[in-house]
Amino acid sequence: LETLMKEIDTLEKRRRQFMADVSHELRTPLTTIRGVIEGLRERMISEDEQDKALQLAQNESKRLIRLVNENLDYEKIRANQIQLNKQRLPLKELLEMTADQLEHAAAERGNTIIVNASDQLSVFADYDRLMQIFINITKNSIQFCENGTITLIAKENEKETIIEIADTGIGMNPAEIEQIWDRFYKAILSRTSTPYGEFGLGLSIVKQLVLLHEGVIDVQSEKGKGALFTIRLPK
């Protein structure tokens, strides 16, 4: 009976975390679409920028539909049941889209997002999942950085495409670095002991998606000295 109760408790935790992950993932495209609609309605977007804004809203609405269809099922991702549609993608454009989508959230905390990438760089990846990775990590950096800078960097070597997301935020100690990929640790810790909100929610999914791309991800950080996430994807 005790074993059964533990299993029930574990399943309930997974159910609650699944709902939290879904809400987290859907919030970004919905916020972007709402922002475009409000900007057009209030005539805050110039005529020169309207086509770009509408294209962004259209892209995000399509991504939202795809995300809903996938259900963002963590167990499905972990079991390698997600099918990636890999193609050659312009890396600087993806990083700029990430910066554009999160510009308002960054500004609310006094942060600036900088993109440092060559126009010639490309990456072989699934568009939806790569954007999911970039947005999750960048949102995490924004959340733990105030009046600072988040820098999205792209480079390459002979075998790999390398993406770095660096921030000047509060950083992490070694114990936190060891546990940031654990989904239950993040959710519970964020609601009980930090004033910064949901610590790293979504990073567990990020790591699984990088692994599905046959890549690796790691983080370097010191308390009070920011954090650097590095993603390496095979060419």
Structure description:
With about 240 residues, the protein is of the alpha+beta class. About 55% of the residues lie in helices and about 20% in strands. It contains 8 helices and 7 strands. A 5-stranded mixed sheet has the order 2-4-5-7-6, with helices on one face. Strands 1-3 form a two-stranded antiparallel ribbon. Strand 6 and strand 7 form a beta hairpin. Helix 1 runs antiparallel to helix 2, helix 4 (about 90-110) packs parallel to helix 5 and helix 5 (about 125-145) runs antiparallel to helix 8 (about 205-210). It is globular, with a radius of gyration of 18 Å. Residues about 185-200 have low confidence and may be disordered.
Write a brief caption for the model.
This protein is an alpha+beta fold and 235 residues long. 55% of the residues lie in helices and 19% in strands. The protein is globular, with a radius of gyration of 18 Å.
Distance between the termini: 51 Å
What would you report as the Rg, rounded to the nearest angstrom? 18 Å
Strand order of the largest sheet: 2-4-5-7-6
Mean pLDDT equals 83
Strand content: 15-25%
pLDDT < 50 stretches: 184-201
As a percent range, the share of helical residues equals 55-70%
Order of helices and strands: HHHEHEEHEEHHHEE
Instruction: Give the biggest sheet.
Output: 5 strands, mixed
Number of strands: 7
Q: Kindly name the structural category.
A: alpha+beta
Shape: globular
